[in-house]
């Protein structure tokens, strides 16, 4: 179990799916602080949600709505329980993760995108970033927060990887021990 750190649901316990690696409280607090100005009234999408801690933390801090998804049936069960536990079903929409992500276009535009795939599957984050910009389901001034292992973070400075990220641009990166995150903005087209 992990706790919501701040806001409306502060202190609420969230279950974690078996085998999941939830974002540590220290990292969640730091990320939320870094994007605090973007959270109020934001529409959030968390397509690799696991426990849903990132999106639910954003809801607790004033986001308007959140769409949480995962491809794991166990994670979806835990997400449903966590949403019910917070009594936030009107704000949180649970979805299964479609293979091509196009289903999210109907709920667009999103202002915040949380990406926290299993570290060994960081390519899923690149795929989702590409699909999000191609299908225009992110707002023009959207932010993406991508959590990954520090070695993967180092590859983001590679010119070929930067090219793969376009039209997303890395604004900042942070490392907390064995965890790291990059904050990206969607460049106007």
List its traits.
189 residues; seven-stranded mixed sheet; Rossmann fold; two-stranded antiparallel sheet; alpha/beta
Descriptive overview:
- 40% of the residues are buried.
- It is built from 6 helices and 9 strands.
- Strands 5-4-3-6-7-9-8 form a 7-stranded mixed beta sheet. A two-stranded antiparallel ribbon has the order 1-2.
- The model has no long low-confidence stretch (mean pLDDT 84).
- The chain has one domain: Rossmann fold, CATH 3.40.50.
- 30% of the residues lie in helices and 28% in strands.
- The protein has helices spanning 25-34, 53-60, 73-86, 123-134, 150-155, 159-165, and strands at 2-3, 13-14, 43-46, 65-70, 92-96, 110-115, 138-148, 168-176, 179-186.
- With 189 residues, it is an alpha/beta fold.
């Amino acid at each position: 179990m992990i706790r919501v750190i701040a806001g409306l649901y502060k202190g609420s316990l969230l279950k974690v799916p078996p085998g999941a690696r939830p974002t540590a409280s220290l990292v969640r607090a730091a990320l939320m602080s870094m994007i605090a100005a973007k959270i109020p009234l934001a529409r959030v999408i968390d397509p690799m949600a696991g426990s849903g801690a990132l999106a639910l933390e954003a809801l607790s801090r004033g986001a308007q709505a959140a769409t949480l998804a995962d491809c794991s049936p166990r994670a979806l069960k835990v997400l449903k329980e966590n949403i019910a536990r917070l009594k936030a079903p009107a704000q949180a929409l649970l979805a299964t993760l479609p293979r091509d992500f196009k289903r999210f276009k109907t709920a667009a535009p999103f202002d915040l995108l949380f990406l926290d795939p299993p570290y060994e599957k960081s390519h899923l984050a690149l795929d989702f970033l590409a699909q999000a910009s191609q299908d225009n389901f992110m707002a023009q001034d959207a932010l993406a927060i991508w959590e990954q292992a520090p070695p993967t973070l180092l590859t983001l400075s590679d010119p070929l990887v930067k090219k793969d990220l376009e039209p997303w641009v890395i604004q900042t990166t942070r490392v907390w021990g064995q965890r790291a995150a990059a904050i990206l903005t969607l460049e106007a087209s």
